[in-house]
Amino acid sequence: MNKEDIKATKSLLSTPQKIVIIPHKNPDGDAIGSTLGLWYYLKSIDQDAVVIAPNNFPKFLKWMPGQEEIVIFEDDKERAQKYITDASLIFTLDFNHLSRVGFMQESLEAAEGTFIMIDHHQAPSDYAKVTYSDVSMSSTCEMVYNFIEAIDSTSKITSDIANCLYTGIMTDTGSFKYSSTTSRTHRVVADLIDKGAENIAIHNKVFDTNSPSRLHILGCALKNMVILEDYHTAYITLSQEELDQNNFKKGDTEGIVNYGLTLDNIIFAVIFIENKDEGIIKISFRSQGDFSVNEFARAHFEGGGHDNAAGGKSDLSLPETTTKFIGLLDSYKDKLKG
Fold this sequence. Notes:
Layout: H1 3-12, E1 18-22, H2 29-44, E2 48-53, E3 71-72, H3 77-86, E4 89-93, H4 105-110, E5 114-119, E6 130-133, H5 140-151, H6 159-172, H7 183-194, H8 199-207, H9 212-224, E7 226-228, E8 233-238, H10 240-245, E9 268-275, E10 280-287, H11 293-300, E11 304-305, E12 309-314, H12 318-329
Parallel strand pairs: 1-2, 1-4, 2-3, 4-5, 5-6, 8-9
Antiparallel strand pairs: 7-8, 9-10, 10-12, 11-12
Helix pairs in contact: 2-5, 2-6, 5-6, 6-7, 6-8
């Protein structure tokens, strides 16, 4: 954060505020971890704060401290809307465009509160009075740690905050293997462990509590994997029928796209997931090295994210989407040489 943003934020928090903290739709570990971590901090300085998520989040995050206090907009719209209407200060975390909250977008656009954005994705929009945006950061959770350090002191980080922030950093760095993991990231994580983050327990709760349906879907996904050796690319498809046959639950497909990158000589991995309720194909892109999936997603699939991790969507059918995708690869062949 720059000096002006720090000064403005301190001024805003110097008096009691009604605060709403919002993650993106389909929140992941970084979104839930950062919002809850910030929520605990704001409560500790006697602010009236609430976390409102657009929709529910995966079961493997349901253990997190404070998660039971999150208001789910789609399940409790009237209550959530009142919080947003009454809010004097609105934090948006782990996203940088209001379209990322889905059906909450209209409510936020009509809100009269002052916005503060904390996010590490590319191309932030300009809706916030204070914008703390840094694409070099491993995670929004690392940024929340920096935020607390900048406006106050990391001595305010309790074990609950530490557990929340550690979870988001761990999940958004792929257990510390992505290129966004820096020496600073490790120093932050070390301090969080010193402050009470139960790192081994967190890893077990996130990664070692699979349901049978999750493993069955993983098996189906790996069976469907297509390897395009000429393009150093692997992609996976999951149809709505396959999800339904395996009793799909929210979060069951989390991380499956990364399996493509475990193959030798693969630098581009994609998963296409059919969602008939929304009438779209949801797409996750991952890469290694210099190939920017952020640019690819923005150019062709109405998405974006980071250079090595991004998302997108398609309004075409699943077969039409994969055909379109394969047809695009030839123009990227030189960039996909590795």
